[in-house]
Queue: 3 jobs
Job 1
Amino acid sequence: MTRWLSPTEEAAWRAYIEGSLRLNARIDDDLQASQGMTMFEYHVLLLLSEAPEGRLRMRELADRMVFSPSRLTYQVARMAREGVISRQPCDDDRRGSYAIITPKGRRTLGRAALAHVTSVREHLLHLLDSADIQDLGRIFTRVRSHLEPPGDGPPPGGRPSGAGAAPRRPRGK
């Protein structure tokens, strides 16, 4: 039998949903206004910049982005036309391919990183004290671990992934 949310649980849930939607939309708007890129494009470049050799298999990238493979294929094709990433077939699997960040992609990411971190600080971090930030990290690490497909571990270095990843200086910058 389903147990309904208590008033306190419902208030917390609604605050999370509405706050996270507004936060993601604001960061996306800020990146588009200042850099002409979406938060999803930023995160694709960030994940690739952190990957060994600047590349990930498309399937792994789709999993890390929580995208369907077809949505990622479309996104990657668009970004490849812009020259910020490229695709390369997998030598060991003719059906698979890699997404690879290009030098132009690294430069683009480097320029966008400052706008991204500024937006994250302005719209989230400056509202929290250090204990709140630690709580937020602890809570969403637990949620992410619960929701990861079986067999997936944390990304290299144990850093968070997903559109809400903690902003940090991209590699190669």
Job 2
Amino acid sequence: MRSKNKRRVLFTILTVSLLVAGLLLSGCSDKKAKEEPTKASLVTSSEKLPKMVDFWSPTCPPCRAMMPFLEELHVEYVHAFELEKVDVSQAENQQRSRENQIQYIPTQIFYDENGKQLFRHTGFFSKQQILDKWKELGYEMALKAKD
């Protein structure tokens, strides 16, 4: 009888662990509503610029750590590239996350000015790493001149 109780406890612990893991990953998965996504662009421009799309969630610690310097990049390089943030925890963004095969967050996707995907990165990406990646992709990132 004691052996059965041990197995039952182990089975319960394993089941609960799997459920918790599944819930934690569900914010990163793309298995929710099939609604048309709304764009959360930080910049709109008539001029074609390359674009970086950041897939994130407010419950993701690395995503939150990136927020301050993503805002800095938006202000300092608004003339050089578009920055779009897509909150994967919002139902309206689930289809877009699925289309972009987002499995983990944060994920950054770099596009050229014609919308062709150039590079994809998953995980924390520092401000300098983002600027270095643009340079590696052939885009010079000069700071916006102060007026």
Job 3
Amino acid sequence: MYPVPGQYHLADISTRTYRIEKASFPVDVTAAALIEPYKLQLDKTMIDVISINEEELVKGKPSSTLTNWFTDILLDETQNYYNGLIHFAIQNYGGIRVPFLAKGNVTVGSVYELMPFDNIMYIVVMKGDKILYSQGGDNMDMFKDAEITNTGIFIRI
């Protein structure tokens, strides 16, 4: 097989996580003074302990302790808002932004590190025979004609 001029393919991917520590950069005193009152107020909330991990939870594919833990939380919390039975939950692997969650206290701040963006849970009602399953998890053709509105996602099957 010969390469086609102007076309490329991905041969390999490797990733690393770099944690940036406060001590790595000099402090801008003016900026620090400006945000200090807001930081103090925010810090009071971010240190609240909301759970305790008995072991370190690690992110991995296709399944891992961290992704399973987080998906279980989605399932349990969503069930609190829905009267019917929810059979399973799905979450976006790429949406989890840390490689692990340490053993010990889980704080509000560590959850924001885990998923730092505004996230929304949707409940999709479907017949069992219409749920597509693929071992790799990439078979999402069923959503190609989905209509997303401010009240949820509607799929025509």
